[in-house]
TrEMBL record:
UniProt topology in membrane: Multi-pass membrane protein
Keyword Zinc tagged: no
Signal peptide: none
Protein name: Na+/H+-dicarboxylate symporter
Length: 466
């Protein structure tokens, strides 16, 4: 008599879902299709987005909101736990220094590529945008922002912003977390717990339990990624489309060529130089990279980036829980290096202004340290305004590039996230904190085990690349 399931069906005929990565890829494809359909439907009769566009926007937005909701408890519990483990680590200061050094090295390489592409492709001399499209942005970069962002304004690092509806006059206030400030708060509590010794053990035990709970909830959220991907990419296609690329085609090409060179040439070379297989890195980091691409949010992708860095790439948890959250606010090769370098050259060429060698050196300097200087209000537009103001270029040039910014932001964020996983991996390898067996694993099974610590070898929903 053949083996049957509880429902009476043969065990061999049980429905098996495709691997998690295949589900996400299917979500990408379905998102593009639904986005094209929504775009063809056009706006609703009242001029608002049609029902399909609104649905895609809501689904994608809710998924990103869920991920962001997990960021704060994950940062706090992970950083406190990692600092508590520093009692067994003798080179904590060296790890922090190495992390910052490699942040700077990779940023310098990226900005050099951006400058070279700007000079070779000359996007500002080959565009159909006109000067009447120039407009200064609503917010700009500030060199003092980094220092002020380090000082928490309240225990939870909360910031509030109020906007007034011009039609109804109603005021709406929204709250947001300053991630860098919260890293500082979490680190301070962790250090205090470490300093008082045994008296803090009940708190640390509670924190370890809370971390396991947060990781469990995080996995439930991540399992929704295929659905979230449909909404995020579908809305991007429906709302932005690709029409805007026409007038800024060479600029868009320059940005994506630069991003591709960093992601698929520079990063693999650095990995090879450290004796690591680049293919293993990409198969391990791919879940975070693809989520960064569709969500356009490094902070929203942070929970996934930290998980893949630790559990796919084999970086020590005590180090990854510090390096990845810190990198999510200060390590942005896409937004803070390639993009502002090419954009600054575009603006200079468009307005007929010549840049000197010292100007190019300034671009490199701003790109290397600027992402930290704009932490807390970080973003490609803020980073670009910081670069333009440092060079004395017209800030109105920012308005010329806004039409294609959402399209560029997908690629920029993917590179940002890849770099945020790359640097901890390289530093961990150099410092002997990388589990090479995990890094070189075949990625089969569920790398986000429900048990938190142990992996479920029999699971068929793997968060890996195909």
């Amino acid at each position: 008599m053949s083996e049957t399931t509880t429902a009476g069906a043969p065990a061999s005929r049980r429905l098996r879902l495709p691997s998690f990565s295949v589900q996400v890829l299917l979500g990408l494809a379905l998102g593009v299709v639904l986005g094209l359909v929504a775009r063809e439907l056009g706006p609703a009769a009242d001029g608002n987005p049609n029902w399909l566009t609104s649905t895609l926007d809501t689904v994608g937005g809710l998924f990103v909101d869920l991920l962001r909701a997990a960021v704060i408890p994950l940062i706090f519990t992970a950083i406190v736990a990692s600092i508590a483990n520093l009692r067994n680590v003798t080179n904590a200061a060296r790890l922090a220094g190495q992390t910052l050094l490699w942040f700077a090295i990779t940023a310098l390489i990226a900005v050099a590529i951006g400058i070279a592409l700007g000079l070779i492709l000359q996007p500002g001399d080959h565009t159909s945008v006109t000067q009447d499209q120039a407009a200064e942005p609503g917010r700009t970069g500030d060199w003092w922002a980094f220092l002020t962002s380090l000082v928490p304004t309240n225990f939870l690092a909360l910031t509030a912003s109020t906007s007034i509806d011009p039609e109804s006059g109603a005021a709406a206030t929204s709250l947001s977390f300053n991630v860098l400030q919260f890293v500082v708060v979490s680190a301070a509590i962790g250090i205090a717990a470490l300093k008082i010794g045994d008296k803090a053990e009940p708190f640390l035990a509670f924190n370890r339990a809370a971390l396991s709970i947060v990781q469990k909830v995080l996995w439930w959220i991540i399992r929704l990624a295929p659905i979230g991907t449909i909404g995020l990419l579908g809305y991007a296609v429906a709302d932005y489309g690709w029409d805007a690329i026409g007038s800024l085609g060479r600029f868009t090409l320059a940005i994506y060529v630069g991003l591709a060179l960093v992601l698929f040439v520079v990063y693999p070379v650095l990995l090879r130089a450290h004796g690591l297989n680049p293919l293993k890195f990409f198969t391990g980091a791919w879940p975070a990279i693809q989520l960064g691409f569709v969500s356009r949010s490094s902070v929203g992708t942070l929970p996934v980036t930290e998980q893949v860095t630790e559990r796919n790439l084999g970086v020590s948890r005590s180090y990854a829980s510090f390096a990845v959250p810190f990198g999510s606010t200060t390590k942005m090769d896409g937004c803070a290096a390639i993009y502002p370098a090419i954009s600054a050259i575009f603006v200079a060429q468009f307005f007929g202004l010549d840049l000197s060698v010292s100007d190019y050196l300034l671009i490199a300097l701003v790109s290397v340290v600027g992402s930290a200087a704009t932490a807390g209000t970080t973003g490609a537009t803020v980073m670009l305004t910081l670069t333009l103001s440092t060079l004395g270029l017209p800030l109105a040039g920012v308005g010329l590039l806004l039409a294609v910014d959402p399209i560029l932001d997908m690629g920029r964020t993917a590179v940002n996230v890849a770099g945020q996983a790359l640097v901890p991996t390289i530093v961990a390898k150099r410092e002997g904190l990388l589990d090479l067996d995990v890094y070189n694993s075949d990625r089969r099974g569920d790398v986000f085990a429900d048990g938190g610590e142990d992996r479920d070898k029999t699971a068929d929903l793997a968060l890996t690349s195909p």
